[in-house]
Amino acid sequence: MLVAPSSLISPASSAAPSLTSALPPRPVVPEGLLGRLAQVPDPRDPRGVRYRLATLLAIGVCALTSAGHNSLAAVAEWARRLGPAELQRLGCPFNPITGRYRVPDEGTLREAYAKVDPAALTAAGYERLAPWLVLAFLPAGPIRRTGRRDGSLESSW
């Protein structure tokens, strides 16, 4: 038994514009430092984790690229001197009670860095650079190899 629709308005007709076609295309946002470092697996016990591993690694990367911050004590000091906007961009958690972003101390950084797999960290960091590195070291022309009398090879570009 068929029942007549209760509404006098016809269901979606072909004349109605599609909702997805009316929206403008979203711009593609390139992955940043946190996105790359989030690919590194977190070896820490999930109980008691206060900072994401990507946040701790990003603090280390940013501090080590600035002049004079070559120890964990200097990295922690650098992080303590950051403003709220920088701490937010690095992914530090916000404490609503104090109204401030929490900053990891030297011990937290030391424990996290000691447990990170160096191969996974390297893979996450160099994954974006890999295509450029290959192109940078390719010769402009063919490689010619000539044999020497002593049996070694000499390459010329």
UniProtKB/TrEMBL annotation:
Renumbered residue ranges of the record's region Disordered: 1-23
Keywords in alphabetical order: Signal
Cross-referenced InterPro entries: YbfD_N
Stretches assigned to the H repeat-associated protein N-terminal domain: 36-124
Signal peptide annotation: 1-15
Protein name according to UniProt: Transposase family protein
